[in-house]
Amino acid sequence: MHSREFLGEVIIRLVARVIHPWAIANFRSGDLSGSPIESTTTTTMKTTTTLAALALAATLSSTNATPIIDLFEYGVNIDGAVSNNSAPAGVNISGFDTGTGLGTILMALSGAGPHYCSLFVDHEIDESINTFFNEFGTAAGAPVAGQSWEIDEPGYVFGDIYTNFVAGTLDNSNGVSPNSPDDVSMALGWNVTLASWESATAYFTLSETAPTSGFYLKHFDPDSGGAVYFSSALNVTGSPGGGVPDGGSTLALLLCACGGLAGWRSLRQSFL
Ligand SMILES: [Ca+2]
Ligand SMILES: [Ca+2]
Ligand SMILES: [Ca+2]
After folding, report:
1. Which ligand is nearest the CA of 71, by number?
2. How far, in Å, is the centroid of ligand 1 from the Cα of 198?
3. Are 101 and 125 in contact (CB under 8 A)?
4. Based on the structure, what is the number of domains in the chain?
5. Cα–Cα distance between 81 and 77 in angstroms, integer?
6. Residue 8 has what pLDDT?
7. Number of helices and strands in the chain (H, E)
8. Between residues 23 and 180, which one has the greater pLDDT?
9. Same domain, residue pair 137 and 18
């Protein structure tokens, strides 16, 4: 079951959304009065806590020298088989920090015919300082043949990225408006057709350092300056004779992917 189906998380997200426009509008000015939540008769303790935290955040945000990056959740799709917050057979997460969501994940593909693999990641940047929904995403460069991508709100409100991830149909677009910050998530995928003698490894890399070349996605927090860069590479090896893999001459559908999948934080008690 996908984590977003948990009722508690849904409630937290909805509460966040109620105050979202107000919070975003007032965060930079530090004016935390007049919340739409406060004006209702259903004000909750969580809301009060949230407002207090936002007030603190407005005070502390300018002093946050080291961005705090967390991975709320991640998902793997290999040939239509979806796994959430776990590594199925053929997926290597040994180089991935499940707490920060930074590092590299490898996915292995083999067998003659068409294949698909993708990685969905939902990071939060400085959530405890300025929320998880004051963020943006951008795509840099051009994807190579077989590569697909998506940036969007993760599906609690309006985004279709998770649906597309499950269906293997990433829409190659950024659904988070550059004029309206939100909760950001990203996904990268590959379609490749292998011959019987070929195998492939997809590399998905998440890093705080921007790749120096190639196509990549960027998820960033404009208030703290924190950023996560997501890139990917696909390497196909094998020769008809079944002998020594040709290494360099074999298809190298480029690029790196720094991925830090990570930490499935269970239910958040607060969105701050
Ligand atoms: Ca943030
Ligand atoms: Ca979308
Ligand atoms: Ca996020």
Report:
1. 3
2. 42
3. no
4. 2
5. 5
6. 55
7. 4, 12
8. 180
9. no
- For all residues of the chain together, what is the average pLDDT? 78
CA of 245 to the centre of ligand 1 (A): 45
- Give the mean model confidence (pLDDT) for residues 12-35: 45
Regarding whether 247 and 118 lie in a shared domain, the answer is yes
Mean pLDDT of 129-158: 98
Whether residue 48 sits in one domain with residue 80: no
Please give the residue that has the higher pLDDT: either 165 or 11: 165
Same domain, 110 and 226: yes
1 Cα: distance to centroid of ligand 1 (angstroms): 27
Neighbouring CB atoms inside 10 A of 25's CB total 11
Kindly state whether residues 91 and 143 are assigned to the same domain.
yes
- Give residue 3 CA to ligand 3 midpoint distance, Å: 14
17 vs 4: CA distance, rounded Å? 15
**How many angstroms separate the alpha carbon of residue 151 from the centre of ligand 2?**
6
Which ligand is in closest contact with the Cα of 159? 2
Whole-number Cα distances in Å, 137 to 129, 183, 197: 19, 10, 39
Judge whether 264 lies within some domain: no
pLDDT score recorded for residue 64: 54
CB 43 within 8 Å of CB 37 = yes
Expressed in angstroms and rounded, the spacing between residue 184 Cα and the centre of ligand 3 is 4
Domain assignment present for 263: no
Query: Does residue 267 belong to any structural domain of this protein?
Result: no
**Domain membership of residue 52 as a residue range:** 3-63
Q: What is the pLDDT of residue 241?
A: 77
Looking at the structure, do residues 172 and 222 belong to the same domain, yes or no? yes
Q: Does one domain contain both 52 and 73?
A: no
Q: pLDDT tens across 168-188, in order?
A: 999 999 999 999 999 999 999
Prediction pTM value: 0.74
